[in-house]
Amino acid sequence: MSAETATQTEKQRLVLVTGPSGAGRTTAIRALEDAGYEAIDNMPLSLLPRLLQGPAHQRPLALGLDVRNREFSTDALLEVIEDLTARDSIDFEVLYLDCSDDVLLRRYSETRRRHPLAGAEDPLRGILREKKALQTVRDRASILIDSSAFSPHDLRAEITRMFSLELAQKLAVSVHSFSYKRGLPRSADMVFDCRFLRNPHWEAGLRELTGQNEDVARYVKDDPRYEAFFKQVCDLTTTLLPAYLEEGKSHFTIALGCTGGKHRSVALTEALAQILALAGWQVSCRHRELERAQGAVS
Known about the structure:
This protein is 44% helix and 18% strand. The protein has helices at residues 3-10, 25-34, 48-51, 74-86, 101-111, 123-139, 152-163, 214-221, 226-247, 264-278, 288-297, and strands at residues 12-18, 38-41, 61-64, 90-98, 143-146, 172-179, 190-193, 251-258, 282-287. The strands form two sheets. It has a five-stranded parallel β-sheet with strand order 2-3-1-4-5, with helices on both faces.
């Protein structure tokens, strides 16, 4: 066995699962445990360094954390995320389970449970407090799953599909759009700048739409520079992904940015995700600024 292979074998895989209460964190942890992960739910943050001491565990780890953790604070969790991301010995990912406010409220009403941050108040107050507290953690997520439309069975199936240790194809690809005004996505492995393409923002009929709209996507594609640029992005991506799979990565994030994160980057993200899916890769899309806008409205 080569030194390089030995290093890859000894690398500890760790998935930190978090998100608002009621979004499916417990279901996700159980699905990961069934998939072969050693799952630990709501372990005190102060014990995490001890857990990771010494050689890598034989099985990958799944750690669940939420606001009910007795040592929980946003700052403490962000420090943990920064520390684990910086460690070369750990293959670390943050899985964030999110859900719309109305669905969370319905779930609490159906189960008649109290929200941990609401006390005797309306559960909606607790939901909004928790989402505000977790926003910066959400922004640091490697993988975001919105469980609003998922049943527990559907969510288990999605987690199994993305994290199964038995799959021959183990590299899950995330394609993100973002706004340069709000900074680069910190989880990105590869970044492309789309700001040189003509901007639909300056077209009155397109300004209020997004890159998911066919008219906006067509407008972006009609830029004379689009075809050559997009071809090179696809060629580079499809050339490198097999190499990262061979290296042992389990997730790879590609980010495409424009000025506002609403039109050009969104259209290119959708187009690239479709190409990669047709090529047989596990692909998910995330539009950071559109998600933030929806969160502000909800």
